[in-house]
Amino acid sequence: MPLLLALLALTFVSSVSATPFRWTTFTSVSSVRNVLVTENNLWLGTTGGLVRFDPQSGEFETYNNTRGLAMNATVGLGEDAQGWIWIVAPDGRITRLNPETGQTKIISDLQDEIFEVSSIVAVGDEMFLGANNGIYRFAFFPIVDNYRVSERVRVLGNFPTGIAIHDMIAHEGYLYATTIFGLARAPLSSTQFSAPASWTGYTVADGLPANNVVGLGTHGSNLWIATQSQTVSFDGTTFGTPIETGEAFNHMLEYLGDLIGASESKLYKLQDGTWTPLTPLQYGLSSVANVTIDGEPLLAVGRSDLFERPGGIQFFDGTNLSPIVAQEGIGGNVISSIEFDALGNLWAATAGLRLGVSKFGNDQWTAYTRSDTLQGEFWNDGPVSTVGDDYGGMWFGSDGGGVLYYRDGELHSYNPNESAGYDVDGPRLSNIPGSNVYCETRVGRMPTGEILITNLGSSSGRYIAVVPNDWLSQGDNPAPWVYFVPDSTPSARINQVDQIFGDPFGRFFAGASRNGNFTYVCDMRGTVADTSDDVWFNYDPVELEDAATTCFEDINREVLTFAVDHQNYLWVGTPGGAYYSQGGLGASLSSLRFICLYDLPVGTKVNDIHVDSQDNKWFATDNGVAVLDPTFTWIHVFQISSSIDYASDLASNAVTSITSNPETGEVWLATLDGLSRLQTPYVSRKPELDKVVPYPNPFRADGTHTMYVDSDDLGGRFDDLRVFTLGGRLVRELTWTEAISTGWDGRNSKGNLVAGGVYLVVATTADGHSATGKIAVLGR
């Protein structure tokens, strides 16, 4: 048959709203872990969310954490008797999705209790879930209108307590479960599956080829059992003769009357008592299911991402495998850095199995990864830092592969091993001593446009490179770059420089790496090409701490990020927190002192600090995001939806990089589990609007007082006024007339008086401009 996939139209589903504090998630859904077939759809559980594939239209639709899922990554799929889809997250939370309405419900019974699921089996109106530490039995409870755990089955007969379940199936009145110690079964009529006596165990002593059983399937009335290298049938009483497979079958199912076995690399058919390969060797096979498309029975084959190719879904007609297809999107979910280019495109550096970079422009993603675009030394290590130049080019530093440069649709690698990495004088960047390939770099830029590069431990002794604007204006060309060697006083580890940053005074800061002690500062005195007049300064941040601060004992000398805010404060993120310069930077560094940011609400490792258009500082940490306003007040904290104090639709608490669009107020947050976009009111201020000054402030919300905003204080008319909690929840929306004439009476949209606390007040114009202020509300 024609493999039909040439007719499939791939679509990307996204939504954009101008509403402040609205979240959108972008993930890669190419790596398929599970396949579930329902009456009308094919469901794919992926590392980036749940995907619905419509066989009739050929369209994909993605569900993620901003569409109701507990998390993006999926480790198990199932369907209950009510037709709802079960999606299990790595933290144990289960999302039930109604395919007709899109409604979701969360089951949190197993949160932080399991991390892997092998199978979900529906038996009547009950659900059985096989996990890494046993079996969980679920029943529907009308009072909560949801499923809850009715039994935790930790002991299967004589097998060890809390044993991992490899696979599970309901067959001929029994529930079968496979483990490393053998096969166990219990009658489905059992009242208590948690009673060890309910289970019967089968091992090699009973006829199994081996105790480590990895997969189950059925063919006719027989159960089929797979071990690491053999399969065997079981009629409920007697085991058949073992058949060699040579490798483990993780899945077995009946297709067109034949028994099919699936390993991680091939499909096999049982033919005349022998397993015969049906497909060529192709690693990454993760799941198999029967599906009918246009009346023709097919096998849907899930594929995971590999270094050499992205995953997705294939279809097998008994003879041929179709090409792999998947929903288009970002290259990978492990995102190390993001930044805008001069043309307004967002770039994301991705790690994991899809090393590379992805560009988001015109609401579409274009991926340049090792698995689907290029090979080369750079792709062995992946990009970790990102910066754009003034000519539409993008620069990426890496943990071992040198520098990647993108310009006008072409990629250029600069390292000791690829031809693009050479100029008229030889390699532009060099490896560390003792390795011919390892070239670790970070990239930054000067406010005047020059690109800055650190070459950690460079064997050539040129630890810092600056790419001049003359070179950048031409694109890749043989002209040399300019190289800098830090002042050797102090001489300890001057080659251990990592993050690099240009300040507003024509200097660059090269921060210490994990093995360094000092940050080096170079004043180029306005002449990039002439290094003879450079003035160097170096410092140990601990030695420059302000006496009044209290947390420098936790501050690490290693620099993970630099930033300068609108008041010229230098901000530095480290593995142990953050600090900033006392009184801001000036033309002289002789009086430089640092103050510890001792009250960071979340996280200990500060991966990035971003300054938005209204001078708010966004801290990307290993445990969420915190936002500090210009008055040094924490105005927002964001963590994932399971957070008790700071729940939001952030994709992951592990946030690596943040950037924003000052024209739209969109803040982009890169995480280790996808990319989040947050619509905020923090846009560039225009002359029409200034800061919102509500009065009286404080304001007592007792039903008798009213808060007003004077449009004259704003410098112009606004169209509506919104009151938010500091967590981003909308409390009340007023028109311009209401805000000016009747004011806010302290009630929410339901008419209830709000609780005391600090609230955010946002005035917005019809053309998208906004201004913000804060109001302290006193409760009754």
Describe this structure in words.
It contains three helices and 64 strands. The chain has 780 residues and is mostly beta strands. The strands form 16 sheets. Strands 33, 34, 35, 36, 39, 40, 41 and 42 form an eight-stranded antiparallel sheet that branches. A hairpin with a 5-residue loop joins strand 7 and strand 8.
Strand percentage lies at 35-45%
What is the total tally of β strands? 64
Assign the structural class, choosing from mainly alpha, mainly beta, alpha/beta, alpha+beta, or little secondary structure: mainly beta
Overall pLDDT confidence: 90
| C-alpha end-to-end distance | 73 Å
Unreliable segments (pLDDT under 50, ≥5 consecutive)? 1-19
Q: Fraction of residues in helices?
A: under 10%
> So how many helices?
3
Largest sheet: 8 strands, antiparallel
Q: What characteristic shape results from the CA principal axes?
A: globular
Radius of gyration: 30 Å
